[in-house]
Structure formats: structure tokens, C-alpha cells
Amino acid sequence: MNQPGAQSALQAAGPVGQTLLDVSLVLTIGAALIFAGTMLLLFFAVRRGPTELSRAQKRAWVLGGGLVFPTVVLIALFFYSQWHKPPWRPMPPKDALIVGVTGNMWWWDVRYSDPATGTEIRTANEIRIPVGRPVFFGLSSADVIHSFWVPTLGGKMDMLPGRVQHLQLQADRPGTFRGQCAEYCGGQHARMALQVVALPPAEFDAWLAGQARPAAARPASELVRGRDAFLANRCDACHAVRGVSEQSRLGPDLTHVGSRLQLGAGTIGNDPEQLEAWIAHIQQLKPGARMPSSAGRLDAETLSSIAAWLAQLR
């Protein structure tokens, strides 16, 4: 099974994530110093014992400690956080990669534009991006409120039905970074993860060119049965496999499903055996998912042939 990538705001891998980490550290250290100073004053007050303060001293403590000090600290923190706030852009920078992401219950629909033809490239539950290049996300929801959050790269952004939100992120080093829906969206909310894979630019360009190609219309002879079974059992009513079946938006695009790290939005790993188990027992692995389990409906040989055909779609 492929291991998920890092999911920690303490392991920043991009400028937005680093900025948020720096601000968080300043706030944490500042709060700790203020707490320590307050405890120190309390210690000396207890050690000194009851003391009668003059009216001027009482006024100085109230005004200084209760008004001036917190006002100065809060104003300083406000301007510091505003100065370090990640920029929001209504339009992407000229060199940005534009990626559309739509949240569904409980998976992610991901869209790119083919730089050669301008046609749309669809994938699911996994986002690949080039290192060192800004990525401008257009985020929306097909049903309820979801929230896009990849803490290693930056903060979260809610995804609202009928509205497109924008978020700009960037990875400064190669790696795999785990994301998660951060807004409760139903029974399988906890199993709505995604992987963001940052690749060197040349490797990313090669990957995107491969994703633009359709699946092989004529697979090897031993895989023909799997393709035919996929079509005969109307799997293509919900899932598109470009070059084999018509486009469908009811379920994830499976054109290159064999190359993905995980299945079911991070539910299980991706290999032929686990792919077969996913098709056969999806309602046991992810109860409530909008796909019925095929165990009992399809015989073992048919299940195995469909899984083998899908696994080689890379």
C-alpha cells in the first residue's frame, strides 16, 4: 500500500505554508512570554504578601497592565499578521498553473487544461503540480459545503455550492503532501482525503501530456474481457474512460486510474488486489458511497478481469 504524504502545518513546503507557520510561531511564542510574565508577577505578589497600594499605583497598574499593554500588543499583532497575510488574487498570475477542483460527497474532481490543445483533462482525488510554479485553484462544490486544506502548502478554503473560490499555493520542493476536507460533509467526511504530488517541472509536463492521452482503445488480448465487462455492466454510466466510454460526471474519471496513489479519496492503496476489493466491497470499505458493491452481483472472474483492466490504465 502506498503511504500517504505528510499532513502537518509544521512541515511547510511552500511560501504560503511557511508564512502561516511563521505567524503561528510568533503568536505562540508571544503568548508564552506574556503568560510567563504574568506568572512571574503573580509569584512576586504572593511572595511579597498583602501590600496597600496608593491610588496612583492602582491607577498605573489598571491603565498600564489592563489597557495600554494589551492595546499595544493587539495592534502590533494585527499589523504583523496583515503584513504577512498571503495575497488574495482575483486573477491568476501569468505563469500560474490553473487547476479546477470540485468537492463531491466524498471525492475530489480535478481538472486541468491541456496546454497543447486547450481541452479539459479530468482526474480525481490526486493533484499533481510543478515545483516552483504558482498554482491557482478554482474551488467549488457539487453538493454540500466542503473545505480544501493541504496544511503543508497553506491554509484552507471553503468550497461552496454555486460559487467559485480562489486559492493560490506553491510547492518549493518535490514531495507528496496529504490534504483533507476540513468541513464536515456527511458520514464519510473522514475518508475524503487527497494527495498533492509536487514534481520537477519537466516531470510534471510529461505527466500532464500523458494524462491528456486517452486510454488505449484496444488493450492486450488478456485484458479485453475486463474492458468488455466494464461496458457490459454499465460501469461507464458513472465513470468515464476517455477513448473507451463517453464522458460522465457522476463519478471519478478512470482514464488513468492505475497511476493514482490511492483509491476512494485516500481510503485504501492502489494495486490490482485492492482495486478488486474496492469494486467488490465498496460499501464495506466506505459505507454510503454512491456506488454499490459488486460482490454477489458479478462473479469472481469478471471482477478480477475488470480490476486487471483498470489497473493497467496509466
Beginning-to-end CA distance, first to last residue = 17 Å
Structural class estimated from helices and strands: alpha+beta
- The top level CATH class name of the largest domain: Mainly Beta
Helix content: 25-40%
CATH superfamily of the largest domain: Cupredoxins -  blue copper proteins
Question: What about the largest sheet?
Answer: 5 strands, mixed
How many alpha or pi helices? 6
Outline of the structure:
With 314 residues, the protein is α+β, with helices and mostly antiparallel strands.
How would you describe this protein?
The protein contains six helices and twelve strands. It has 314 residues and is α+β, with helices and mostly antiparallel strands. The protein has two domains: 1-51 and 87-199, Sandwich (Immunoglobulin-like); 221-311, Cupredoxins -  blue copper proteins (Immunoglobulin-like). The strands form three sheets. A five-stranded mixed sheet has the order 3-2-1-5-8. A hairpin with a 6-residue loop joins strand 2 (107-113) and strand 3 (120-124). Helix 5 (272-285) crosses helix 6. The chain starts with 14 loop residues before the first helix and ends with a helix. The model has no long low-confidence stretch (mean pLDDT 90).
